[in-house]
Each structure stands twice: as structure tokens, then as C-alpha cells.
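Thread title: Can someone regenerate the structure for this chain?

I was given the following input by a collaborator and told the matching C-alpha cells would be attached. They weren't. Posting the sequence so someone can regenerate them.
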Amino acid sequence: MTTEPVLVIAFNRPDLLRVLLDRLRLVQPSRVFVAIDGPRSSRAGEAELVQECRDLIAAIDWPCEVSTHFQEQNLGCGLGVSTAISWFFEHVERGIILEDDIIPDLSFFPFCTELLDRYQDDLRVFAIAGCNFAPSDAVEHPELAYRFSQIPHIWGWATWRRSWQQHQLDISGWRSRLPIRTLWSRVGHSIPATVYWTGIFELLARKQVDTWDGQFVLASMASQQLTATSNVNLIQNIGFGETATHTVEDRHELTAGSVLLPTAPVPVVVDSKADEWTRVHHFNATWRGMLDQLDGFRKQRQRRKS
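Best answer:
Regenerated them for you:
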């Protein structure tokens, strides 16, 4: 049993939520928080799917304290998820966050607890990530259990209230929080990466994308804190497909492995090699990626005009 509080964020995919609950049953967290967004009135049958998710939560059968935050109206990806996480940290100082399509390896849970303990009062550390995209030959020290990254990955993660309090859904004034010189430094002095993140933050500031995680990246960059990232991928994302909001295509096909515990502490410095690989291969923050991003912005403007 794990005593680390776990927040489960769900919506309208009971088939995925059932898989996640089966995994949680194996570790039996003693405190489970569940946030489920409300159905969209324009989507036929969605209310029934949302209710099915609620029923699954009501049927949790291991000994634990369950707290729920069910929305009657649909808040969407941005407000819905950020509201859920804020609610979670109103009740706990730290914890693990899992969306309904993220299935962690069993070692993910004690890994998070160990690092949450280790860096509880270390203000250099922003979050803990169980998701790893970089292959071992792209990591500076693959023999170590984890590394530090500029970017917090949110497919299976944990953090403290102190970090989440820096998150703002409305980032209309983001340039004052993250001056261009700081952004330039945070992305490894890469012109394409600077352009990439500037574009992302601008889209979010103009509310042209309904999400919350880019704002979390901004908070991390602005605070100049780092995320402890497992060198072994510890999660599987089973949510790719037509029912997904953002993860329509799985470009990485991540499989979950295990981390050997306990881990040895590592220096709190960025693994620049792994971050560069992630910039190029995961975010596509390259010269070609800049052109693709500009083309995407152009097509988006055309759609809004039509």
C-alpha cells in the first residue's frame, strides 16, 4: 500500500479509467482524489459515459479514503484539469497526478514518494516525472535512476503544493514572467526552441488552445526550477485514438519499465544531452519544426476567418 495521495483525473472514457483503477488496486493508495469533468450537452451519449466513470469510482473496493470533485457542467481541458489539480492541493501538500489514460509501472509510486521526500524542501526542484521519451544513448548518465530536465512531463507526475501555486491558467502577461533572455537560457540557447515555446505561450495567452500543461511549463521556466525525470520510462499512455483530445497519434509508442529502488541522489543540474534530444525528437523544436509551426498558425488563422 502507498500512503502518497493520488489524484485521478477522468472524463468520458470508462474503459480507460477501469484499467487505471485496476492498476491502483495493486498498490492500494490510502487517499484517492478523483476529479471528473461534466458532460458536454452537444455530445449525444456523453452524459452516460461520464456517469459510468462516476460509478466506477463509487465501486472502489480497497480500504482507502475517497474524495470526489464531480463537475455538473463541462469545463474543458484547460479549466477542468487545472481546477482539479488546484482542488487536490487544497487538501494535500504533495501528491501524484494521473490522468485516466496513464498506466504506471508499480515502481512509479515508491519512486515518486522517494523523490518527493528527498526534494521536499529543495526549491531547485519543481516536480517529479515518470515519463521518459529519451533513449538511453541520448542520456548523459543512463546508469543513474533519474536526471533533471527543464521541462516537466505530465504523463504520470508528482509535485508539491509550492510548485502548483505558481501555475496560472491565464498567461496573458507571460513575457513579463519569462523575459526572452531567460527563455533563451532555459531552452539551451536554441533559436528553434525559443521560437517554438514563444509560439506555444502566445497561443495559450490568446486562449487559442484549451489546455493547462503549457502554462505549467511556463511556471517551471519562469521559476528556473528543474524536474526530476526517470531515466527509465515508467508509464504507458493508452489514450491515443479518436476519443483523445490531444493525443490522437502515438509517435513514441512508450512501454513501461521498472526503476530499481532505492535510488541514489543525483546532482541537481540539467541533463542537456537528454533535453536536446527531447527538443528535437519529441517537441520538434527544429528549423523544420519552426516552418511547420508557422504553417499551422497560418492555417489556424484561415479557419477562423472562414
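The chain has two domains: 1-100, 105-306.
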